[in-house]
Please model this.
Amino acid sequence: MQTTRLRLSPGFVFVLSAVAFASSNCGAQSTAVSAASLSAKLHASRTAASDLELAGDLFGVPRGESRYLTREDLLAASQSMTVKPSEGDFTVRSQVKGVPLEDLARSLGVPAGDMVIAICKDKYRAHYSRAYLAAHHPVLVMELNGRALSDWPKDGQGDDPGPYEIAHVNFKPALKILAASDEPQIPWGVVRLEFRDEDAVFGTIAPRGPQAGDAAVRDGFKIARQNCFRCHNRDSEGGLKSGVTWTVLAALAANEPDFFTAYVRDPRTKNPNSQMAGSPDYDEPTMHALISYFRTFAPAEAR
Model:
């Protein structure tokens, strides 16, 4: 159940390309210094529609409260980067301005063990684990070629890629689980970032029951938490874009494994209106792992 949004919104592909730092190491250090000043720029309430909402483990902020950063303050702390035409869909080199998520988290006093969750205006969520942050260094982007993201053309559904999106510094797959490769999480329409304890968030979807330790179940868990969790939720965690919960996925995996497999590989054969990206390369062992994992959430008699 991959939901790589590059595939879902071809009108925004030009924005979601691989990113390479255009400046020197000295420039990167100055970005970290600039980002450190953001902690003093937090607002207790929204001042404009373009403000970025921040929540979770923020230093000095009571649990459950949000704070806001203005687009202007983020731009002041950003670094210019170059998108290479060879790495994306640009025909010419293009410039973006952004702040690495790791720098942003440090500037806000976020505990080192936290993950970053990007929440989008269409209820999609990207979960940046500690390992993902260390391997891929995702960047919060607020400007492309001198224009705010909200000023770029809308896609077929009438959405623009603003107010923020996340891109990467030379993304290279860091892991492979059976036939499932590491994929870039490149959300657009980002309106909120949450800084949360990774173990607590992923613990919500950790496999249950006596089969939880099986190798196939563990592999299925790793795939599901990177891919399925973006659009499907379990209770208050996970994305709400699809409207299909973890409980429904568990029921399908347990009771209709052939349908489940066909949907994951090519969703539109089962639902022509599906926005989910297919995973045709998921072979039998990969699907067995996913089905075995989701079955741990089904009632005992259906496992």
Observations:
- Residues 1-30, 86-90 have pLDDT under 50 and may be disordered.
